[in-house]
Amino acid sequence: MVGASNVVQYTVVIWDGRAFRVRKGVTEEIDPQTGIVIRNHETDDLFFGLQLDGPSFGVVTEFLYKVYETPGKGKYDLNKYDNIFST
């Protein structure tokens, strides 16, 4: 997956309908309707599996990314790039 090394947390629904919130070191089984944690698992297996081969494990419904500040001023005039964003 592109940019997978910057993902710090996934929410994924697997084939049997169970939902998991996955981050390095912890996998939480959650209720898909309420988001309440049902049980915790201390494992990296699903986290690294999603980073290496995500689509094989289920449908990822949410990503939490680590972001970085841009070098320099960090401000860009997006009006210059209207032709890129238009369809």
What would the keywords be for this entry?
single chain, about 90 residues, alpha+beta, 5-stranded antiparallel sheet, 2 helices, 5 strands, about 35% strand
Structure described in brief:
With 87 residues, the chain is an alpha+beta fold. It has helices spanning 45-53, 82-85; strands spanning 7-13, 19-23, 26-30, 37-41, 59-65.
List the helices and strands and how they pair.
Blueprint: E1 7-13, E2 19-23, E3 26-30, E4 37-41, H1 45-53, E5 59-65, H2 82-85
Unreliable spans are none
Let me know the number of strands.
5
Oligomer state of the chains in this structure: single chain
> What summary fits the major beta sheet?
5 strands, antiparallel
Radius of gyration, in angstroms, nearest whole number: 17 Å
Share of residues in helices? 10-25%
H/E order of the elements? EEEEHEH
Spatial gap, N to C terminus: 26 Å
Shape: elongated
- As for the number of domains, it is 1
Kindly name the structural category.
alpha+beta
Q: What's the mean pLDDT score?
A: 79
Spatial strand arrangement across the major sheet: 4-3-2-1-5
What proportion strand?
25-35%
How many distinct helices?
Answer: 2
